[in-house]
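chain below, 126 aa
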Amino acid sequence: MNNNIYQRTRLILFMFLALFYTSCQEDPSRHLNLGNWYLQRGLIDEAIIEYREVSRLYSGDANELKREEFHVLGKSHLKLAIAYTKKGWWEYALNEAKRSFEITPNKDSHELIALIEEKLLQGIDS
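prediction:
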């Protein structure tokens, strides 16, 4: 009896994860949201994977992106830069912050670039 319940629970969990994965697979904004969820909980490596997936999904012709898609892509690069700073990967963080600013110039990206450049000038490494 317990083995049967275990197998059913495992099957339900597998089906849920498969459904969740396929729903995220083609929707960059869901990857962004999932990355944000991971980042808030301190799961930095998982957040990085999700933010990178947004970039991969938008790796086609940038001229074909809609306004909202530019926003998601820019936000993803910004959040990736933040995740990299939490890992102490300052050079990677600076590159991502600059990409974010190029895609969607805003105060947050600009301030993050300045902060990272200041840290690099102070000689803070990983």
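The radius of gyration is 18 Å. The chain is about 80% helix and 0% strand.
thats it, cya
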